[in-house]
Amino acid sequence: MKGPLFYSKILLFGEYGIIKDSKGLAIPYNFYNGALKIDDNPSEIAQKSNQSLKAFASYLNQLTLNEPELVQFDIDALNKDIEAGMYFDSSIPQGYGVGSSGALVAAIYDKYASEKITVLENLNREKLLTLKKIFGRMESFFHGTSSGLDPLNSYLSLPILINSKDHIEPTGIPSQKEEGMGAVFLIDSEIVGETAPMVNIFMDNLKNEGFRNMMKSQFTKYTDAAVENFLKGDFKTLYTNTKEISKIALSHFKPMIPEKFHNVWQQGIDSNDYYLKLCGSGGGGYILGFAPDYNKAKEALKDYKLELVYRF
Fold first, then answer.
1. pLDDT digits (tens, 9 = 90+) for 266-303
2. Which of 53, 83, 159, 310 has the fewest CB atoms within 10 Å, i.e. is most exposed?
3. What pTM was computed for the model?
4. Which of 170, 199, 218 is the last residue of a domain?
5. 108 found inside a domain
6. Range of the domain at 138
């Protein structure tokens, strides 16, 4: 058995901000993917995945009992496949902010949800919000709380524009230019990040009035503008706004930035060769970069592992 592939995702803009109703933009990242599988001779990693699926199935059973009007799963079929050794065969790195649990949630929903909302139907706002709510409940098993956005992006495999918590829609993004100078890229921090502790730091910060005001007057303002710039292909203004987001992150989200990247983060702001921002919740995993000239950025960051995401 081998199920369909579900891809990783990158939240280009909106990290933490979408909790406070800033705009956000998430895109599929097809470099990594995962699928449900059953093998005759499962590896140690496959067996470990199978064990965690057992616990997840038990959680989903409880979810079905608690919220039957929201979602129903064929738990018997799921348990039967888990007993047969089913696991999630994934190349998506865990704790890297690219949606490893999101892809798994999407795969389980796709295969085992009863009366599921499919990608082929007319996805109006109500259906999208229902899917997001279901996925949020499902993914909470892994993170304590979840917006449901990662699984939604993986399930639809489309760029998603978040206008606010209650207003999301699939969107189009400008075509890539193979020979473009500008780029979005990832830096591998070589540290595994954990979502829950980072989100807890953010929620604690929100108790501070100064921090709340900064989120409202600065972070949301520049994030919303950057989303608009990207969608319109106005990359010159995009860099100006991304630089501001990068400065805010270094000033107000320092615990989420691995310490060894504090200097390199500042160097990007000072040199204008690149601007770094959090990829997901931070604390490790990938760091997202924007560069007006990717070759210059590569030279400045030659000591780090870079992955190209998008060229313009």
1. 999 999 999 999 998 899 999 999 999 999 999 999 99
2. 83
3. 0.91
4. 170
5. yes
6. 6-170
